[in-house]
Amino acid sequence: MSRLSISAALTPRLETVGMDALMVRLFDAIDEAHMPWILAADSALRAHLGDALVDLVPSYTTLLVHYDIARLDQAEAKRRIHTALEGLAPASTQTGREHRIPVWYDESVGPELATIAERLGVDQDEIIRRHTARDYCAFALGFTPGYAFMGMIEEALATPRLKTPRQKVAAGSVGIAERQTAIYSMRSPGGWNILGRTAVKLFDRGREEISLFRPGDRVRFEAVSRDVFIEQGGDTTPLEER
Amino acid sequence: MHAKTEGAALLVERTGPLALVEDGGRFGVRHLGVTQGGALDWVSLGWANWLLGNPPEAAGIEITVGGLSLRAEATQWLAIAGADLGATLDGQPLDACGGFLIEKGQVLAFDQPHAGLRAYLALPGGVDAEPFMGSLATVAREQLGGLDGHGSALKVGDRLVAAANVDGCRTLPASLAMPADDSVLELVTGAQIAHFDGASLFAAFNETWQVDTRADRMGVRLTGPALRCGLGGMVSEGIPLGAVQVPPDGQPIILLNDRQTIGGYPRLGALSPLACAKLAQCAPGTTLKLSPSTPHQARRAYLKQLGEWQ
What is the least distance, in Å, from the CA of A73 to any CA of chain B? Predict the structure, then answer.
């Protein structure tokens, strides 16, 4: 599967999506093995487009290139993109940065910890063990600033989104939906199944790197106690009281 | 130059439904999930700025449907463009588009829409405030930008400080019309258009669309013929400005400046930037037509608009 996808990466498809935007389509399906290719394409496109690049939005299988229409017409933009992607190959250094994210897994701040444990017929500690058992890949950032769509969680944990999204989900809430996991970067509406909360700020304007995550980063969750969570500056207000 | 108080200010005495600091938008950060924001009708903001000699993307105030009232703390030149929201200066009607001198103590007030939805107020040099990630664009959903940096709309007691002084203003070369019913919006067709069936494409570009009440700075829903697309569940990908996405109910949503950065519905293409500006002035119920266009045509019209401000 991923071998096939990699050969597809050698012939990226370029699609018109607007006056000043082209979609670079590398793959068709979600696969962690694709991320090094996306990251390699990201660097190559940034280097070749230089100042003519307005925004570059990598996602699971694509990169949206928004170029400066005053400098480039579409034909020239296409030429530069093709040149950038010629002989594309992921470098071993392009594996993304690693993050360890401490999470207080508890029913009060993660109500679906209980419902998922019940559905699987296991105790809550088993859900925590499974959620913390592997590294996740940040496929794309979106929804709110600094929010990363990560995966893949193990198949058995996969859970559909809530039928009725919550009006307010606290910042730092750690959730799962289907085979993906994420952390709410700010208080917002949301339909993911919430398992716990982290005190780590994903989007912090006081920090030099405002967004903690970038596409392609690797993330490992680790369970911490309530006391450690509080020590780290965590807010213990139960989710449903927000 | 007449010496005027540096950074003459306007005091917000009353707010309407929504008045926001907006500029040309926030760029280079969309890969972090930060949207572009900025004036929805960038053409009207551009003209308001041009009247005062500002760059077209300088930060001004986007006033949606009126209600805003400002008192001048010092005498200064201002300019407005865009929707006719019944603006008055100390009760005397102002042209919907033009520059004027406001004397210390005078009140600039916006009433309600007579034509269009959004008026733009420019201050000399733009609004002076601390940009966040390179822009003052207010995005409430992201809690970013604006006077406080946290995405707040203007509120009573806020002070709008001008970044510079000017001692006069320009005159508009021609009057700016707001879109009327059956306006034509140019849609740059995208690659995914091939997945829509023929009858849907015929309907999309020949039937009449109506602006729905579900319309805000994130997007505007159109109602009309149901469009059918053969693309099933799509993997989320970056979304360009003006993207005309079609969810399973077949009713398009046009994604504007405050849209989420990625999404997974198939798209007919994207409205041209000029068409996005027009759409921003269409009240719910307005009828419109979509017209297929190319990147080349859209670019030519866009560069022509920029050229008018050179």
Answer: 7
